[in-house]
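Consider the tokenized backbone below.
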């Protein structure tokens, strides 16, 4: 019997059930987690879906347009800054909402990511911390000046003594609320041709790093990937800026600034 449920939904349910049964194992109600043996079917992705996945990012200029729109229309400044922070760091949402002031080395501009908030098995307000998605997700990343400015804003208008990125009510930001904020305002500025979310911002950060010529190993360490194939598989697209750079480099003559015509090549041969 087959169920008409998308694999993404099944994956989310598996995450929730795994956390539930892990608790049962820790309490010694059961000896092992049955969800660990669950294998989800692999779905062949269509060409259209692959193209949408490759286009699931925004550029730095597009981010500026969205942020300026939110600022000029007096949208929620905390969610606006949160959106900008994830773009510049590539943090996963669970990692992002778990960032505390003690995790930031203000003197050296570093952020230690060694935990995340488990909001799937517990209530947000419980603030249950767990290790990140993988062992490789434990990392220390450098923060640019803009990220430090964003943290300073939250520290200046502090509504929680421990966690940095809380809402205007002092509560941990909700994934669904944040997603709607990102999607609605990105669509208002950039058009409704696609949907935007937290993963779009994470994807955008990695795209930016690729365009800056950052080595794949350094990108993996920054975003918390252990397996190189995961990074290559998920972020194998090449942006328009990179395509232009490749064209310019291929057109360049390393020996001379003069360009050879096809006729010149025939004469030389």
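A designed sequence for it:
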């Amino acid at each position: 019997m087959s169920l008409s449920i998308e694999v993404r939904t099944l994956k989310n349910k598996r995450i929730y059930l795994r956390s539930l049964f892990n608790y049962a194992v820790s309490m010694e109600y059961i000896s092992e987690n049955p969800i660990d043996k669950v294998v989800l079917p692999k779905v062949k992705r269509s060409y259209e879906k692959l193209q949408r996945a490759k286009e699931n990012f925004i550029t730095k200029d597009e981010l500026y347009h969205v942020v300026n729109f939110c600022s000029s229309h007096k949208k929620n400044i905390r969610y606006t800054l949160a959106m900008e922070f994830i773009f510049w760091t590539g943090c996963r949402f669970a990692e992002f909402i778990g960032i505390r002031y003690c995790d930031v080395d203000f003197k050296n501009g570093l952020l230690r990511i060694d935990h995340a908030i488990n909001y799937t098995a517990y209530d947000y307000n419980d603030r249950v911390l767990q290790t990140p998605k993988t062992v490789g997700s434990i990392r220390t990343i450098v923060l640019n000046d803009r990220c430090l400015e964003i943290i300073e804003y939250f520290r200046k208008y502090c509504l929680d003594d421990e966690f940095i990125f809380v809402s205007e009510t002092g509560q941990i930001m909700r994934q669904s609320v944040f997603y709607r904020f990102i999607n609605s305002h990105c669509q208002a500025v950039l058009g409704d041709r696609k949907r935007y979310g937290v993963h779009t911002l994470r994807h955008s950060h990695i795209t930016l790093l690729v365009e800056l010529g950052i080595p794949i190993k350094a990108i993996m360490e920054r975003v918390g990937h252990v397996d190189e194939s995961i990074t290559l598989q998920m972020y194998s697209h090449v942006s328009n800026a990179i395509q232009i750079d490749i064209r310019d480099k291929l057109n360049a003559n390393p020996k001379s600034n003069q360009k050879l015509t096809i006729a010149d090549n025939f004469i030389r041969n």
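The first helix runs from residue 7 to 26.
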